[in-house]
Design a protein that fits this description.
Number of helices: 15
Membrane topology: Multi-pass membrane protein
Helix content: over 70%
Number of strands: 4
Strand content: under 5%
InterPro entries: ABC_transp_permease, LivM-like
Structural class: mainly alpha
Strand order of the largest sheet: 1-4
Main location: membrane
Organism: Bradyrhizobium brasilense
Subcellular location: Cell membrane
Order of helices and strands: HHHHHHHEEEHHHHEHHHH
Distance between the termini: 20 Å
């Protein structure tokens, strides 16, 4: 009996040490997975889409998973980043790196505007206010036809080569395109890891767990919520900018509330409040979409049924549930 107890203790210690190692080096592990990821996918364009939507979900997860606020307006942040990146290239002739910076700045600015108006609300009211403001952004870009192309979307975002430290990379080549985008995604994961490991990251989770106690401890809850929402906008703006470069077009649908709903589904599927969960959710959803849509035009019905099954059997999301079971 004593031997069995010692064995269980040793097993738990081993699991704990591995979990601690994975947590400490989580960004490096994500980077290693991303570098080999295109070798596991049926085609490179799918791998690129997973990276972009995974990054979009990572930004959303900062607000939803770590802060505990459900937003239905993140399409505005994602779409603004895409549009400003595209506008910088098409209308002003900016180089690709400056256009990406414009996309990030657009996400930050839009998050600041929406956050100032919505952050004082709670629960379902916050979700509804963010959705309403996101739809305002949708119609704003829809009406600005000269800049955005209106219902036809913004076209002509042609980036054929990437000039980097004297090197000219063929951005049309699928593998080069993947690794250029992967470099930004990996950098974003390292930044996110640093945010979560910082004292501010601990404050974010403290506000989620017990807002009154966090306020009693001297933290400004409102400013914490606003800053977290703005940081989320930066990640989503970067994802939108990369999407614009990847597609060479920004469709108006990128700002629709369906895009906000999609990221909620991805975060729930992968595991909200987990570091790698959003990327798992994006991979599972987009792979299912691509595989099932080949068989039937009613792919949404099948994917929806699979999503319901995942919610029932993986209540903390796929990655979140696996982590919880691994800790036992």
């Amino acid at each position: 009996m004593t031997g069995a107890t010692e064995s269980v203790k040793q097993s738990r210690a081993t699991t704990g040490s591995w979990y601690e190692f994975a947590t400490r080096h989580r960004a490096s592990i994500v980077a290693a997975v991303i570098l080999i990821f295109p070798l596991l996918m049926p085609f490179t364009a799918l791998a690129v889409n997973i990276l972009i939507y995974g990054l979009y979900a990572v930004g959303f997860n900062l607000v939803f998973g770590y802060l505990g606020l459900l937003s239905f307006g993140h399409a505005a942040l994602f779409g603004t980043g895409a549009y400003l990146c595209g506008i910088a290239i098409v209308h002003f002739g900016w180089p690709w790196y400056a256009a990406i910076a414009a996309g990030i700045a657009g996400g930050l600015l839009m998050a600041s505007l929406i956050g100032v108006l919505a952050i004082r609300t709670r629960g379902i009211y916050f979700a509804m206010v963010t959705m309403a403001l996101s739809q305002c952004v949708y119609y704003l870009f829809y009406q600005a036809v000269d800049l955005t192309g209106g219902e036809n979307g913004l076209r002509g975002i042609n980036v054929r080569t990437i000039d980097l430290f004297g090197l000219r990379l063929d951005f049309i080549n699928p593998m080069i395109r993947y690794y250029v985008i992967a470099a930004f995604v990996i950098a974003a994961f390292f930044v996110m890891s640093r945010i979560l490991a910082s004292p501010f990251g601990a404050v974010i989770e403290a506000v989620r767990e017990n807002e009154m106690r966090a306020r009693a401890s001297g933290y400004d809850v409102t400013k914490t919520r606003l800053l977290t929402f703005v940081l989320s906008g930066g990640f989503c703006g970067l994802a939108g900018a990369l999407q614009a470069l990847h597609l060479s077009i920004v469709p108006i649908e990128i700002l629709h509330y369906e895009t906000s709903g999609l990221v909620v589904m991805i975060a729930l599927l992968g595991g909200m409040g987990t570091f790698f969960g959003p990327m798992i959710g994006a991979a599972v959803f987009l792979v299912l979409e691509n595989v099932v849509s080949v068989w039937t035009v009613h792919w949404q019905l099948i994917v929806g049924a699979i999503f319901i099954a995942c919610v029932l059997f993986f209540p903390a999301g796929i990655w979140g549930t696996l982590i919880a079971r691994g800790r036992r």
